[in-house]
Amino acid sequence: MENQKEEQKQKQLYRASINTILENQHSGGAFPASPNYSTYQYAWLRDGSFTAYAMLKTGNTESCKRFLLWVNKTINRYSGKIDELESKIKKGSKTENTDFLPARYTLEGFEIEDDWPAFQIDGYGSWLWCTGEYIRATRDYKLLQSVTPGIQNTIRYLIITWQIPCYDCWEEYGERIHTSTLACVYGGLSAAAELAENEDFAKAGKTAYKVRRFILSHIRDGGFTKFINDDGIDASLLWLAVPFKVVAVDSPAMVKTVSVIEEKLLVKGGGVKRYPEDTFYGGGQWILLTCWLAWYYLMAGRGEEAYRLLAWVEEQQDENGCLPEQVPGLTANTSWMEEWRKRWGPVATPLLWSHAMYLVVLQEMKERDRGGVMSRWGKHRQQK
Ligand code: BGC
């Protein structure tokens, strides 16, 4: 009976996740971060790339393709900015936040004029990575041809920007260099290098190699850190292994990093927080990061722990099968929750990226479910 209820929850969330993503995809291919949260009605390349990947993984290939075409068109629209930036950097002139490509666009693919901390390069790496995954899965070389100008522009952009401090994937700390941002750059450039044999794509491979060497030369106390040349932990460091493969899941530095994430950011019996000092809505447990740790566990052969995290995520859906961005809980920074609620309203729900990461992990788990271990884990979990 209990088992049936759990299965029900899983089915409901699977269906709701696919629907939420497909129904909210803009006619031009972009995904809004969240349809009901006014600050998030834009298309972030970061959220969008993982959302498109979830669509690819669940067989909604057309949706993924439409997103890739949208990004290509959008980046090409602003390729003049890359030319100008290149020449500014060559001349050694001072650059402004607005000289860089933004982290988010309107759903129609235009820049937004406001004071958002828009200079973030991780999403540009993530879209290249997603394109690589799409081509690998579909062998749709026609699409590759269509998006080649966008890929070339992105390679050019990342080559000139990867060493410049920028805002991180949480849109904070613009004066630092972030290890997980570099992981996205590495993942994107190395995926691009495999896509075609021409000079631009080869440049991507060479830079990917340099980025990886840079990351590895900044390991501290045996593990990776939130910022380059500083201590600190952040759950986005999981991306170094999954999916961007800067290192293997079982490399000593990754194992050490994951143990710090488990110690400092994983709530017992619950989900994963972003970083200890987080104050956004009190710094709660993020659905997408909980899925990420589950994804890492799966890849590291720790299936039962992955299953437990996914079951926790399933518990967090509301009656319509919607997942929030984060689940507030008792944290050191709870007093901040009210502050954010007053500023921006309740936590963003549904967040497409949360749904996407749930789908990615569920799908990966199903693909690996040899001999029905998933249902055995389910029973085992209930006995605890
Ligand atoms: C998060 C970003 C995310 C954006 C849209 C921000 O609060 O920090 O990672 O891209 O919301 O979902």
Query: What is the count of structural domains?
Result: 1
CATH 2nd-level architecture: Alpha/alpha barrel
Based on CA atoms alone, the radius of gyration comes out at 20 Å
Order of helices and strands: HEHHHEHHHHHEEHHEHHH
Q: What do we call the CATH topology? A: Glycosyltransferase
Mean pLDDT: 95
First and last CA, distance: 16 Å
Structural class: mainly alpha
Shape estimate: globular
Count the E strands: 5
Bound small molecules, deduplicated: beta-D-glucopyranose
Strand percentage lies at: under 5%
Unreliable stretches: none
What order do the strands of the largest sheet run in, or round the barrel if closed? Answer: 3-4-5
Per DSSP, the total helix count is: 14
Q: What portion of residues is helical?
A: 55-70%
**CATH class annotation:** Mainly Alpha
Biggest β-sheet, characterized? Answer: 3 strands, antiparallel
Structure description:
The protein is mostly helical and 384 residues long. It has one domain (2-373): Glycosyltransferase. Helices cover 55% and strands 3% of the residues. It has 14 helices and 5 strands. The protein has helices at 2-24, 45-57, 61-77, 79-91, 122-138, 141-161, 179-193, 199-216, 252-264, 287-299, 303-315, 336-344, 352-368, 373-383; strands at 43-44, 104-105, 272-273, 285-286, 326-327. The strands form 2 sheets. Strands 3-4-5 form a 3-stranded antiparallel sheet. A two-stranded antiparallel sheet has the order 1-2. α5 (122-138) runs antiparallel to α6 (141-161), α7 packs antiparallel against α8 and α11 runs antiparallel to α13 (352-368). The longest helix has 23 residues, at 2-24. The chain is globular and about 65 Å long. It starts with a helix and ends with a helix. 47% of the residues are buried. The model has no long low-confidence stretch (mean pLDDT 95). The structure holds beta-D-glucopyranose. Beta-D-glucopyranose binds next to α2.
